[in-house]
Write a structure and sequence with these properties.
The protein is mainly α and 139 residues long. It is 71% helix and 0% strand. The protein is built from three helices and no strands. It starts with a helix and ends in a 7-residue tail after the last helix.
């Protein structure tokens, strides 16, 4: 009796493991199909494109500007700061939507409200810091 219980438990374990690895095999197969699709697309492009090199085609080209002068250019940092602040507040909005659905569920009201005010407090301190440093002033 004891051996049959052990055998049935081992068989059940093999069934669960087989289902577990079968789900990963589907993901692996899908990844393989994706890699093959990209490889076939690049291979077809290489075989079908015309190759006619000319001196004009071999010049460095970027955004329609002729490559004259040095390659060093100064970039305004404030554009990156605005992009970074946008990303911060976009992430904030991504967190607000699930919070609103959890907040509406019974039994989660006070705890989630406090957690969200702590989260928004951190964001407000960061925004206040950026404002005090003059980052938000467009000059």
């Amino acid at each position: 009796m004891r051996e049959t219980l052990g055998d049935s438990a081992a068989a059940a374990g093999h069934v669960v493991a087989a289902d577990y690895f079968r789900s990963y095999s589907v993901v692996g197969l899908l990844a393989l199909v994706g890699v093959l699709f990209v490889a076939v697309a690049f291979g077809a492009g290489r075989l079908l494109r015309p190759v006619v090199p000319t001196p004009e085609k071999l010049l460095t080209y970027e955004c329609g500007v002729d490559p004259v002068g040095e390659g060093w250019a100064h970039t305004q940092v404030r554009y990156y700061v605005y992009a970074f602040l946008y990303v911060i507040f976009a992430v904030d909005s991504v967190f607000l939507f699930p919070w609103a659905t959890v907040f509406a569920a019974p039994g989660y009201g006070a705890a989630t409200l406090v957690e969200m005010f702590v989260f928004l407090g951190f964001l407000a301190v960061g925004l206040l810091y950026a404002y005090k440093k003059g980052v938000l002033a467009w000059t």
